[in-house]
Fold this protein.
Amino acid sequence: MTLPDHRSEIVTDQSAQPKKSETRAEPQPESWRLQIGDWPTLQAKAAPIRLEVFVHEQHVPLEEEIDALDAECIHAVVFDTQGCALATGRLLPDGHIGRMAVLKAVRGRGLGSAVLSALMQQARQKGFAEVVLSAQTHAQAFYARHGFVPEGAEYLDANIPHVLMRKALSGCSAQ
């Protein structure tokens, strides 16, 4: 089973516990900002993150990564104080969250959580009762911490193991 349009790959191992000698940087909202927008507004910033994470790191074919659905989605991008894009994700018109990506150098700092939370809030505002995503299996624990529940069997998408996950949303507002 393949769901390329709803692939949601956050590349972070936030489930790993830091060693006692390490300290994980907590997200500092004053050191980054999150922007929600359409593809024409955010493409120049979101696309390079996705190309780095999916095409270069994970070897997803370019033709599978960039698709026509981007133009129909709500996108979220996190920027640092210098305006450099660090993380991204998208909400499809049907309530699926996908294309979650965080640059390797800033993983584990809460940026993926910020993107995911913002996209879930957008889904609530659109009146969705739930959100669904296709999680890379190594990121399943990340999504579970945000209330997502796995559903069905593992499958390959872009030759990467995935599992379908969904989360009921509370506080939905009518469209």
